[in-house]
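Lab notebook: predicted structure, single chain.

Context: the supervisor wants predicted structures on file for every construct in the current expression panel, including those that have not yet been purified. This is the next one on the list. No modifications to the sequence; it matches the entry in the shared construct table.
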Amino acid sequence: MDEKRWLADEFEANRSHLRAAAYRMLGSRSEAEDAVQEAWLRLNRTDTTGIDNLGGWLTTVVARICLDMLRARKSRREEPLEMPVHAAIVDPAKDPEREAAFADSVGLALLVVLQTLAPAERVAFVLHDMFDLPFDEIAPIIGRSSAATRQLASRARRRVQGTGEAPEVDLGRKRTIAEAFLTASRNGDLGALVAVLAPDVVFRPDATAARYGIGAIRGATAVAEAFKGRAQAAQMAIVEGELGFVVLVGGQVRVAVSLTIEEGRIAAIDAVADPDHLEQIEFSVLDD
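Prediction complete. Output recorded below exactly as produced.
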């Protein structure tokens, strides 16, 4: 069997899975088909000799295509006009009974809720919660760290389950912790910094952010030392739906930082400074 025939057969074997994943990310059958077809075109333009897991490679490609389509749709403020929600949930995959059971268990509101999520949230939730991809594999697709990807999926899960965002009192508590971190950083107060950091806190910058002088580090003391005397140009912000801050240089956002706060302390700090990535991140500066 020649290579092209083998690739075609392998692609067809994965088509149902790819279509189902694309449909849940996009909520549109026609767009899902377009995404799968684009994946086929990219496969034909790719040297496959170095691909060990073709199914995983195709899933990654489809996810990235869907993410681009969601972002383009959002920039145009469009949503697909489709069939009634209940019918839209079920995709004609290989196991219709399983699909029907899935639709019944999820309920009528799933697609509507998914359409309210940010593109990265939607992709992270679908790939992890519906298709069991680990966060380490999803993170490169959406351009986030594993911790940030887990956070996006968790927030999406709360919305899908109907619990919404954290209560206002919890958000207020988190803001107090974040503000304490910034104040201690600006004042160079090492003890106050350590007090708001979890013992195993991790700081994960992207490659561009690391050039500002702090690489990936772990541990409250090490992170506190790294941030002591910094944050002079930082402003509190909501970054990808979570508390964090942005660093302004000349009035322009140069770094966006999200804080993962658990049990009253900062458990993870993720910093993004790559300009292309910053354009895709949703953030809003908070009033002092």
